[in-house]
Amino acid sequence: MKPVLVTGASGFLGWHVARVLLERGFRVRALVRPGSRVDALDVDSVTGDLRDPASLERALAGCGLLFHVAADYRLWARDPGELYRSNVDGTRNLLQAAKHAGIERVVYTSTVGCIGVPPGGVGDEQAPVTLQDMAGDYKRSKFLAEQVAMEFAHGGLPVVIVNPTAPLGDHDVKPTPTGKIVLDFLNGDMPAFIDTGLNVVDVRDTAQGHWQACQHGLSGERYILGSENLTLAEILQKLARLTGRKAPTLRLPYLVAYCAGACSTAWAGVSGKPPRVPLDAVRMAKKKMWVTHEKAKRDLGFSPAPAEQALSRAVEWFSSTRLRPLHKPAA
Fold it and tell me: Which helix (H) or strand (E) holds 231?
């Protein structure tokens, strides 16, 4: 059996995709940047960079399948061009190397942010959407990268595209923006919330969905990997029930959140440190990103658990690894 290359295996979702493949008996080769590593998984790490085509050719040599999960997932960057160089140019470099290497199947990880959501409605893979609908450089770079994946699929490379929603669960080391909601709640760092909504899914189900897309997905097709549409207030109430802590009751008007994001992001431009409240995150929150995974359920056999399972796993993992002490020890 030929090895499988996974990009992003040192990150949250990529780690879980690599785990799913190992459980199925594959030999997993993980593309990692210098200084990165994949913890607690028996993978063959190869050093490379999406911006270095030669390193990608070496990483793909002898592989049969490719799971391109890696992305520059930042809602603020001092140089936004870095996101485009990694997410757009890097995807093009990798898929070109995959075509040259004769890779049998590619699963490209996009994002739910590239899905069209009608005002007040629920989005699906067929909803119209344009680059102008993308809020911020991260979403724009991923939208353009998805177009690159489509180009290669139409050119004959078997590329299946998956659009995960907001995965939650264990091993969210960084953490992701969604995981940070849980961590902030646990640490008492969320005194208020805004009126927004997202689709929450267990990261383990999302990783399983990647394998199902590899098995059953059609080249050039997109598949939403999500579970349950929830408002942020509903998510906080579920966290309150799981933990016994009180959920915040103060709802901030959007204009207040926008001003906070603008000030925080402006200061980041001066200090060089990531903003506490990225303006792009506030802009994204203006729209409830509610979608349906019916196509993935029908065509791939994708069957995710309720969102509460994802939240419970995240609470358990963050509580054991990242939770700050609530009180300072006595002197």
Answer: strand 228-231
